[in-house]
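Follow-up to my earlier ticket, as requested here are the two runs.
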Amino acid sequence: MYERVKLFMLICLAFTLWGCSSSNNSAPALDASGRHPANWIVDHQASFESFPNQCSECHGADLGGGTSKVSCFSTAGFLGFSCHPHPLTVPPWSDPVNHGAEAKGVEDDEPGFEHCRHCHGEDYRGSALSDLATAGEARQRVSCFSASLRIASNGTVTNVACHPTSPHPAAPWRASAGTATTHTDTDLQNVPLCAECHLNNQRLTEPVPVPAGTAPACFNGTLCHAEAGHPASTPPWSDPSQHGATAKLAPSTTGGISAPGFGNCQACHGEGLAGSTISQVSCSSATNDGVACHPTSPHPPAPWRTSAGSARNHTDTDQLNAAVCAGCHLQNQRLTTFVPVPAGTAVDCFNNSLCHGVTGHPAGWANPSQHGAAGKSDLTFCQRCHAQPGTSGPGSNPRFTVPLVSLTAGITFSCETCHRPLTAHPPALQFPAQFGAISSAKLNRPWFTHKTAGNFQNACSLCHGANLDGAGGVGPACFNPANSAASCHITGLPFSVSPACTSCHGNPPVGTTYPNREGAHGEHNLLAGITAACGTCHSGFGTGTLAHFNDARPPRQAPADLAFVSPFPFNASGATASFADTVNGMVCSNISCHGGIQTPPWRVEGAINVDSPAGCASCHQLGTAPGTPQANSNFSGPGRHHNDFIGSDCTLCHDTVKLAVNHFTTLATPALEGPASATIGGGATRVTSYTPGTRSCTPNNSDGACHETRTW
């Protein structure tokens, strides 16, 4: 009986071997002993891909062993060879840290993504070799596009999220954009495989073979990035005005190959900006393709400050870049090789972690005499750290409200904590010390010392409008001729006109409204000692005085303050010149030019008619002797001829036409302007002729009112 059973088992075994070795298209070749040919473990891939089901006859439907007891997914390998399962790792292979890094790299001189294809198929959507059996559940085909995958780990079935739309993480696949994964460290040998979905910047979900002869590369325009990965620009990207300005901006939250911020530069140029597999260009190269770079650092050499005479400046670098700067400058270092900042380090420009202390300013900076002088020199410099926005153009109205580290422990403040809201000016009543104690009665916005500020056109226009006319600004107009009552300067700005006084009135004033009222300025300006010398009559009220400022501010006060300089060169004989704003108008008294007589209101046009006796009497009075009472008092001839017979009617003998030639040319001196005899006779006078040599005149006696020809 035993022999019969033994014979039966041998027959079954023979049939089994015969079945496994039969010649058909669905079974692999086996030798007489039921073994695969030599080197089959290397060559079986092609056979499997031709007839995927043939292996299941011996290795089981799940390829987990079957009658051969050899699993295609053996974790221990077979005959010294590794089989198909992924390695057992911590974290598990399903974690992107493991399989993602392998896919982006190169394995056995083969691009990582190509290696994935052996089991997951040409389209990464799975194949028989990637089928997975989970204990107690049906087999599932593992696609790199699976939204989720159920796998067993340590006997526990778990769900693993995969990539639903692509065989890699969803866009933006960049750590610089805030994602956990990045493609910037992918080995470039994978580029031809990337091109199957991304050729010509495409976003395909099914790979398409790359046309023959195509040479895809990351930076030649065939995939996503153009040459060098930077935008074409004028000047070119190699110019510091392009890449330098972009690097200093706030880091982008969306990223991009030319996105701003030093952190974004690291994506291609490496953590230390010394080049990487993506970009072999180091930002610290002395030269790159003939373009001079930064030989010792990824930025211009020290001192990187325009205030120190450099052409470059770091003070307008957004402080969010501080974490990258710390790689070389932590604890005020000057490293040439980047060192990662220790985890948990709080890096900031003004907390002593880098270069600057708590405020970045010297001790005592809170005193206006310190920071005020610096702020006045160029307010746009303060704006970079203290204002929102930190950089902006004319009319952008920045608010100086950025919270700052306290100058006094426990206090949080901004510029507007001390200064008025919407301004970075001093509060009211801050005047130069030379003004002494002042009254607030006439004060409005007395930021008097702004006249010494620097960079007017750029600094002041931030808040006072692009043209300093108040348009679109939070500050009032500095210059607005259409509405002079609302602005300080009327005809122009002091720095744009010459002389500066013409920003409000002519030199001398030539208009009809205050403060450019002509009055009699034109006539007076012709006199020596008064021409272009406003202080002769407006002593102490020039553009550098508080009085001038108070009268110039809206609402303006009229008339302008007037005081004669001391010593005054035009005092009348034996008297002191004076000015009065009377009910009838402004008049001067005791002025030598006017013969000491009170003047007519000098805003009245034509108040002195020099062609009439009354006009002459406006300045001349009859005298009793030469120079008495004034140098221009008329006294001449024997027997006081003029006084006794002619009186004050000068025009009876003096021709006003001849008089006009010289009469007003030297009024500033007591000397006679030309010989008076040259003006006697002719015209509308009562003298037919006059001979200066003999002092003889021939009167016109047509009305019998005068004498015969006489020498007097």
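Run two:
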Amino acid sequence: MEFNFHQAVIEIKNRLDILSIIGKYINVVKKGNSYLAVCPFHADKNPSLNINSQKNIFKCFACGAYGDAFKFIMDYKKISFKDAVYELASIYNIKIRESSSEETEAFKKFYEIYDCASKFYKKNLYEKIGETALSYLKNKRGLLEKTLQDFELGYAPSNKIALFNYLKENNYSEEFIKESGLCIEDLYGNNNLVDRFRERIIIPIKDLQSRVIAFGGRTLQDDVTPKYLNSAESPIYKKGENLFAIDIARINARNEQKVLLLEGYFDVIQAHQSGINYAVATLGTALTETQANLLYSTNLKRNIILCFDNDNAGMKAFERSLRIFQNLKISQRPELKALDLDEENIKDIDEYIIKKGIEKLKEKIEKTPCAFEFLINKEAKELDLITDNNLRIQKLEKITELIATIKDSLYREVLAEVCARKFNFTKTSVLEKIKAYIDNTQNTILNKNIILNKDFIFKSKRIKAKIPIKSPDSIEKFLLSLLFLDVENEEEQKIIETIKNTEFNDSYLSHLKNKLLKASKEERMNILKYEDEFSEILNSFQDADIKIEDLLETKKAFKSLRKIKSFF
């Protein structure tokens, strides 16, 4: 999809990995848990530039240079902020839609009309026409006045042209009112415009800059459908690219080192009122990759707590969310946890607070289990009622497919052990299931994501190699290992071009790729010997009867590679 300039900046920040960005321009060295580089902004002899991958900032302790990835590129290439944004957008494959002055003005008008509508709805809540709605919020929902003000809740009256008339009085044309989506054509004739929201509690939806971009409307009667009505998408609002309350929660999530994802508007509002002010919600859609990136960027510990309804739809949404997170191109594995409210038929945060109290809820949040372990435990509980072995195997297959999406092989093994214990299978059989799923899906990954020079790599008389498919990132490791082969210049160039033209999924391996491509053949061997981080590339060959020493002694390298049967 395409982004306007402002949206592109936000999207880049969500994906940003400063370590891989700086590594594209200068040589980065790992020392313990830190990453250092020779500072390019002064005559630096010893590595003085410190890169903090968690905070996504750099700092030179010699000359004082400091900033984020945007600042580094601006100073390093001596370019403007705008040019730095375009460079980063190119790196992350983000398409920026050129905005004309007319388009920029149009966006401004959208923000203005939604702000105007928000003030109208809020005013209604405290007038006579809003008495029932205000009573509902305070007495039935138990919301305090401060909460109503914090979330700027409002009311849309039953008069079907109340907002339309208000917007007209504020000099908005009928054409633009219709374009904004706040009013729609009357289904009962004459093509007259009527208000989208009528006789509903109004919940403003805001972007990261706290600008109103859409509304959610809830009926006052539970028997009216739909219970919730949301704004249509517009130039300033895309459901899959925003999260409810993200403007309030992001600061609190950074301080609390966690973010809580809920399903409904009022769940979030109640949570904030009770002190859990790091809660957000999706906007009537399944979790998207953009929303997952937003959650990932809220706190440095990457601590994300998922809380979905305990029905079938909720569990499917939960599983789908786990897959979304596994597919993110990020540098640090998020700590995914699950908040289970399935106690005494408690359905949501609101009810839990009423029945158990806020302190109990906070204790429960602190003890939330790993999301994958939660899913394993939940499926295992259902096994107690199942005697059909085929159903047991089907459940195991579903869980192992999900575990197989995890890139960290050690983490996969830990979960395999938990799964084996809970499902009463052997750990070996569970690991075999996981391996089989990885092997079956890897062919698709190969065909879809990897661009290989087959004539060179697979048909050359000198190299007959099979990619050792042992994990989702093994193809990328294999490609990087080819850089250590002692080959002729022409063949080396083909290897380099192949790797350059391959988009790596693993951000860590992408960082190593950029570092290696900048080094000469001699420098690559030195990096291999003295940098511990590069030993991981070669570990993938151990499973394929390839010894690291064989790769270090390049005369034996071709012989070692030939041990692996042809992939095609």
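The only thing I checked on run two: The first strand starts at residue 2 and ends at 3. Let me know what else you need.
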